[in-house]
Design goal:
The protein is mainly beta. It has a single domain, classed as Ubiquitin-like (UB roll), CATH 3.10.20. 8% of the residues lie in helices and 45% in strands. It contains 1 helix and 7 strands, in the order ββαβββββ. Strands 1, 2, 3, 4, 5, 6 and 7 form a 7-stranded mixed beta sheet that branches. The longest helix has 7 residues. It is globular, with a radius of gyration of 12 Å. The structure holds FE2/S2 (inorganic) cluster. The site of FE2/S2 (inorganic) cluster has 12 residues, from loops.
Length: 92
């Protein structure tokens, strides 16, 4: 299990990237104020975050993000893969 570093408009969090959990679940369990929306049905788009580094499962694809890149995704449809990862979140 890697570390998920979360940069937000408020502070920096270092959370466990728990295998099998999506980013919305990890963020909420870690105390990050991710906007609430459609409870993970992929409809409201209020849970958009930016992938900044690492490898993630996004819906049915695997996406690897290099430092300097920024890939917007839905947190409720994205899971971190093995290794450390970094994301940016705009908290409510
Ligand atoms: S919570 Fe609605 S799209 Fe993710």
């Amino acid at each position: 299990m890697g570390t998920l570093t979360v940069y937000s408009n408020r502070r920096v969090y270092r959370l466990d990237a728990v295998p099998g959990r999506n980013l919305a679940e990890i963020l909420r369990e870690g105390g990050v104020a991710l906007p609430k929306g459609c409870d993970g049905h992929g409809i409201c788009r209020r849970c958009v975050v930016e992938l900044r580094l690492g490898t993630f499962s996004v819906a049915d694809d695997v996406v690897t993000v290099d430092r300097g890149d920024s890939v917007p995704v839905l947190a409720c449809e994205t899971r971190p893969e093995e290794g450390d990862a970094e994301i940016f979140v705009r908290e409510e």
